Every structure is written in C-alpha cells, then in structure tokens.
Amino acid sequence: MKIRSYAGITKPSFLLVHPELPALTSRNPQFTSIFTLRIPCNREKLIGMITRSQYSVADRRSATRYGASVSNKNTNRLGRRQGDSSSLYSRPSLLDMKNDRMENRARVYEFLRGIGIVPDELDGLELPVTVEVMRERVDFLHKLGLTIEDLNNYPLVLGCSVKKKLIPVLDYLGKLGVRKSTFTEFLRRYPQVLHASVVIDLSPVVKYLQGMDIKPDDIPRVLERYPEVLGFKLEGTMSTSVAYLVGIGVARREIGGVLTRYPEILGMRVGRVIKPFVEYLEDLGIPRLGVARLIEKRPHILGFGLEERVKPNVQSLLEFCVRKESLASVVAQYPEIIGIDLKPKLLSQQSSLKSVIDLSPEEFGRVVEKMPQVVSLSDRPMMKHVDFLKNCGFSLEQVRKMVAGCPQLLALNLDIMKLSFEFFQTEMQRPLDDLVDFPAFFTYGLESTIKPRHKMVSKKGLKCSLGWLLNCSDEKFAQRMDYDTIEMEEMELLPSFDMNTLTEPKNDDSGSDYDDSDDDYV
C-alpha cells in the first residue's frame, strides 16, 4: 500500500501521517513534501496512533499561543515603563533616575526640617541619597559641639562627607596641635575649613606661616585665634600686608612675633586698613618709625576701626582739654586709648577727681597727657592713694597739685610708697613741700636710686632739690657729683615722655611670642 503527497513531521524514530493533518509551521521545522512511505496493514491500529498524535500536537500549539500572549503582554508593559525600549537588558531612563533623585532629596529635606534645619540653601548641593547617611553626618557634627543654630548659620557644611572631608581635616588640625576643646568655636568661626583639602589648601598656608618665623609651637595658637587665615591665598592679602609693615620700618625679625600676637593682620587690606591707619598716626605727630615700633609692641592696634573708633576718640580727648600738640605723646604712651570706648571713661574719671580733689577740667587734661592710663583706672584704688597722701599730712590743695603734676601717684604700689615716704621723713628729713614740688619722688626705686644717691649727696655736702637728685640717668648723676655748685639749668623738676624712646628698637627676646591677653591696661 502506498500513499503519495502527504505532509508529515519527522521524528527521531518514527513518522506520523494522516490525510487530514494540516501542515505545522514553526521557525526551524523540517518538512517533507512528496515522498513515499510504507505503513502497516493494521488500519485500526494506525488510526489510533494518528488520533493520539493529533491531540498532542494541538495541545502543544495551544500552549505555545498562550505563552506568546503572556510574553507579549509583559513586553508591552516593560516597553511602556522604559520608553518602549526594545532592549533585552533594559535600564532606568534618565527621567526615572531624575525622579528617584528628587524623591530621595525630598526625604532628606523632610528629615532636616524635622530636626529644625532649613534646607533652602542646599539646592544644587550634592547630599547623601539616604536619610541614614544624612543622620550620621548630623550626629557627627553634633558631637563636635555644633548646634542646630550653627548648622542653620552655615548649612553647606551638610554637604561634607564625614570620611572624605570632616575626619581628614580634623585629624590634620589635631596633629598641628589645635586643641580639641577649641574645635567647636573654631568651626563656628570658619566652617568653610571642612570643605578644604589638606594637601592643596591647608598645608601650604601652614608652611607659609612657618616661613614668617612663627614658631611651630605657636602655630596652633595662631590658628585657634584666627582660623580664617586658612582660607587666604598666599599671593594675596597675606603677602602684601607683611611687605607693607616691613616697608614702614617693622623689623623683619619681629614679624613672627607680630603675627603670632595678632594674626588678623594677614587678612587686612593695605590700602583700606593698614595704610590709612599708619598715615593718620603720622598726622597726629608720631614719626613713621615710631608707628612701626608701636605695631611691634601692640600689633592689635591695627584692628581699631579708624572711622568708627580712632577718630572719635581723638576728638573726645580734645574735648576734655588734652592739647593737640600732646596727642602724639598720649597715643604713644597708651595706644589702647584710641581703641576703647573712651568718652564714658573720660566723663567718669573727670567727675571722680573733681569730687575728691577738686581737679579742674584743664588740670584733668594735663593728667591725661602725663598718664593716659588714668582713663582705665578704677575709682576704688585711686581713692586709696588719695587717702594715703592725706594721711601723710598733705592738704587737699597739695594733693591736687601733686596729682596734677604726677598722676602716677594714683596707680603706684601703696606698700612701696609707704616705705619711700618713711625714708623721706626719717633719713632725708626734708619738708613736705619738697614732695609737693617733685611728687615723682615716689616713682623711683628706694634701694636702687633714692638711698645710694642721697648717701652720695650727703657725703659731698650738697644741698639740692629732689628733681636734681633723681631726674637724671646714673651717668649724668655721676657727672654731677664732680660739680662744686649746682647750676640752675640742670634742675629738672619733672620727668616727661620722650618720643625718641619710642623709635628705639626692641631688644628683649622671649621663648614664645604668643600672649593670650593684650589687655594689660584694663
């Protein structure tokens, strides 16, 4: 029996044929077209096999169609989600990534608002993508002593990574010697340091400070006092301010000490701050070299606001009867007088001395000229000195004259004054009027000056005033001992401030130039 022109599907071990079986289509099937095949003669058995095969193929076709339908649905969903992408390995689109970042930032902002931080200034700043990381950052800053108020004052610090920025910077400062107890105030004054690179930003500034002869042990104190210096450019304000100071006469060897005591100079602009200040003092009558010496000794005077403080204080001195020609001497003796809140002090001291010894306004002006520190003396010590003089037997008029002639009497050590007065009475046996004429007697050392000179004059049998005896150098006094008579032109009555002493170079050397306090006259 032969069958021709039937369609069939080849299998590894058998062939199924049926006159009604439709041709199956697939991507890689192998079809036979016209062929000849012998089959068994048992018809019933053959029909059963064909029927079972037909049902099996139908099931497979149905399953294939269902799977394709589900696959198409999933593909359509993925395509809609990813912008109709046909890629087998799809990734989030730029829009999806942007939306995710916005959602993460919104959660971080919500966290910050919940703890009291206003995140308005953080737009555009790279922040942690999770609330947990931001919480860790905030907790670290809290441990440094920074409060929510501090973070609101400079919220950009929240953009600093703990491991990449905060810890390296703080470790570097600690190695320099900056005390951990000062970190809180340090960061409040200059939180921008947390953005800095140790190698690129901080280390070059420290090396520059060392090159300015600031001792290594003083570097941390300088940074604690003026942390803003870490943000300056080496070729900018720092170098020009130092160059100007050297140019006006500040000794190069003194620069290290000047910057150690007042590092704020490194942030001052020459044209706006330093030069106008120097020129104003020159206009008052202080020579430029004298100004340089004042800066060497008291560099913080450069921080006195010229328009806000210095000029108004000079005007107040003139109002309180200080003569214009004496202004230079007043400032040279006590530079702080142009930087303090002066007018209330002048009013207070003038009122006190008027009530106690009836000092006139003109006499008060002379007192300020001779001892400008009087404006910073407290009332109680002054009153004790006045009472001491009264107890010595001086009248109120004599006390007034003595104070006007030598206001230092209001500030000397009372115990030393008592010893000097006792020697004056018992050994020198001079009248009280001699002290009224030369009250500066109390300002000389009893053992170093008064006793030895009195002994030499007594031995020679000379009769002299206290001014002739004391108001001269040891060399000059030795020359006077060769005189047979005392010439009137050499009888100097009272010592006075010599501006030339201001221009003499500083000679003292110290192990460290750093001083925690510049308020010696308070």
UniProtKB/TrEMBL annotation:
GO CC list: chloroplast
InterPro entries according to UniProt: MTERF, MTERF_sf
Annotated Acidic residues bias: 510-522
GO molecular function annotation: nucleic acid binding
Coiled coil: none
Pfam name, any one: mTERF
Keywords: Chloroplast, Plastid, Transcription, Transcription regulation, Transcription termination, Transit peptide
Localization per record: Plastid, Chloroplast
Ranges for region Disordered: 66-87, 499-522
Highest rank taxon of the organism: Eukaryota
Gene Ontology process terms (BP): developmental process; DNA-templated transcription termination; RNA splicing
Keyword Plastid part of the UniProt annotation: yes
PANTHER family in the cross-refs: CGI-12 PROTEIN-RELATED, TRANSCRIPTION TERMINATION FACTOR MTERF4, CHLOROPLASTIC
Stated family: Belongs to the mTERF family.
Protein name stated in the entry: Transcription termination factor MTERF4, chloroplastic
Organism listed in the record: Prunus yedoensis var. nudiflora
